[in-house]
Amino acid sequence: MHPPPSAAAMDFSQNSLFGYTEDLQELTIIERPVRRSLKTPEEIERLTVDEDLGDIERAVYLLSAGQDIQGTSVIANLPFLMRQNPAETLRRVLPKVREVLHVAGVEMQLTAAVSFLTILHEESVSIHTYAHSFLQIILLHLEHRDAGVSNAWLETLLSVIEVLPKETLRHEILNPLVSKAQLSQTVQSRLVSCKILGKLTNKFDAHTIKREILPLVKSLCQDVEYEVRSCMCRQLENIAQGIGTDLTKSVVLPELIELSRDEGCSVRLAAFETLVNLLDIFDTDDRSQTILPLVKSFCEKSFKADESILISLSFHLGKLCHGLYGIFTPDQHLRFLEFYKKLCTLGLQQENGHNENQIPPQILEQEKKYTSVRKNCAYNLPAMIVFVDPKNFQLELYSTFFCLCHDPEVPVRYTIAICFYEVSKLLNSGVYLIHKELITLLQDESLEVLDALIDHLPEILELMSTGGESSIQENKLPSLPDLIPALTAAEQRAAASLKWRTHEKLLQKYACLPHIISSDQIYYRFLQRMFTIMMTNKVLPVQKAASRTLCIFLRYNRKQEQRLEVIQKLIEQLGQGKSYWNRLRFLDTCEFIIELFSKSFFCKYFFLPAIELTHDPVANVRMKLCYLLPKVKSTLKIPEDKHLLQQLEMCVRKLLCQEKDKDVLAIVKRTVLELDRMEMSMDAEQLEKEKQQEGRPVNEKTFEKKRRDIKTPTALPKSIPIAVPGPSSSTPSASKEIKKSKLIRSQSINNQAFHAKYGNLDKCASKTSTAAYTPSASGLAKTSMISLTDDSFRTRNATSLPPSFSPNTPLPSTSRGTGNSVDPKSSGGKDLPPRKATLKSRKSNP
């Protein structure tokens, strides 16, 4: 019984009711704006459009008399109209769009810029037509007062420049650009001109660039506004690539040198980054006599300048050292290396353990910039290892690498985890130096760091295990005892988090462990964990990843006792588990077994437990098995596995006759047709042995003919006498089996109009035995059908518990080479008793 409510809960006093009234009034006030936002009948009438209007007529009407939201919708739909009726759209709709854009708001302008770009990419009209119809509208709105709108139109124009012919570019863009780049124009107009010039240099020849474009470039590089100088400086890289080496050295380099001494910090930064990106163009003399002094001066002044300079410098330092490598003196080499080390620890000396709430905001902002600097240093570590030579890593850079791996900020450790594989490759035989740092990052408290590290974990562990050499060593990681605890702790940490994708990725990467550590270590430290994940984890991709990795562990385990134990646990705890979810995962495991193992292995251990699930009480399990049956059948070889083929056919026939779920039955019918079309693989050696046992010489023509007969698609007849195969000595010869299969095939489902008789198949469930006509050599003879009493395929009680695991319990195996598949000694277990076949004769009704 529930306790009576407290007095406070039953307080109906005046004060309490008054409080409830105030709450209701507040709710009413909250709802009022919602009610006011509803459209009035007059507004709805204005927004209503005649449904009989066509697309073009509706677009013209909405652009002429509609509201802004309707006009925006029409412009967004402009690419569709161009695909459907380009001529009418250009003739009637586009002029209206041009009129509306003159007074349009920001949203409509942005929508128009995107639609124009989409039409260009879709190539709805020719380039000539596009330039004639759309280019002037784009140019007209380049200098819109809103910066976002202006940039949107500029991006569209830059894409259009890529495809326009030279003459159109010259007359429509380059000639007007001369006046737009003048000092008398607005700053925004000159900024747009800078970006257009950077794009145009790749479209004209060197003579035109030198005569018409470079004078404008020089003028903008000397503009009175630092924003314009900075913008033009960043376009010099594109211009240099378009004009060649000679003009770059004579025109671009002097401008860069002058801009690198500019009073504006952003201009100097743009000049530095452009110089670094153009290092490959300049020769050794230019690098040593001109660029190197500029870079030295820039680095020396960087600590006194704004932190944004340090962020850019730390990002480009690796590329800079690589580009200037070979012209450094030993002193300069050491100076740049020390400068890099100083950047790697920038801001760490100020750590004082104070609460972030007590630190002034400007100090917090500065620390964020310092974190960005150290992050960039971690990004450039591989380049700096090349700079000092990997042989000198331990002496020159190991302490720096250690600091980056233990940095207090996650972005820094995340970046060094991404670079860890590159560092390992560069160190080669010296990779043992960073073993401890690998363990540190595997044990990192941040899952982001772990996720970055495991992207290349198999390659890293392989380098660790081989000492950086390509030859494979037998002693797998003997010098790294902390690896296994670190790997298991990383998996448990990922499993305890909500980031299941990281967990899934980690389990997938664990598939490399058989090449890294011994099978005993995998068996005792990882294998049982895979079982636990498969049976208890709630995320399906994680379960499948664990299942596949477990199969790989099993594949490389060479100890028969351990393999049999794993197989038996798979069958008992998954295939015969109480939870249908476990039985579904068993079928996933069977699919991985078929993919990773030999056909004979699957048939020996997993064929019978798999097809036993045709009688599972849960429809989803039966449905999943039906999808798997074609792969199951592909593992069989004839004549060696003909007894397994008969049992497969019997199970499918029972599904056809007894299945009650309509969805499963539909899948069964489709599966039957797919099985019927499949070709059976043939064991040529076994067929040759049988021929030799019959005392007949092997004739190539006869052999080829019978091989073709056996590879003929096998069908599932509606009624076939099921015979329990006896010992291999009493097995009929291959020629007799082929004749029987031919006669049986004549009554296949396809030949008896299978699709037209699905309704009759559904009635089979109520029949326990029936008379069947079986083809024989002399014609059709009425025979008695064999009634099977097969406990191994009996429907399992859903409430029964799975049998307890015992390593000594024999496995339900189906060994190839023995004709009797139902011998209790060879295939028997508690769940697979011997098959009993009894022949029940019934007189046919007159």
TrEMBL record:
The keyword ATP-binding does not apply. SUPFAM superfamilies: ARM repeat. GO terms for cellular component: cytosol; protein serine/threonine phosphatase complex. Residues 684-711 have a biased composition (Basic and acidic residues). PROSITE patterns: HEAT_REPEAT (PS50077). Residues 684-743, 793-846 are annotated as: Disordered. This is Serine/threonine-protein phosphatase 4 regulatory subunit 4. Putative regulatory subunit of serine/threonine-protein phosphatase 4. The keyword Zinc does not apply. Its main location: cytoplasm. Residues 837-846 have a biased composition (Basic residues). HEAT repeats lie at residues 213-250, 252-290. Coiled coil: none annotated. Keywords: Coiled coil, Cytoplasm, Phosphoprotein, Repeat. One of its GO terms (molecular function) is protein phosphatase regulator activity. It is found in: Cytoplasm.
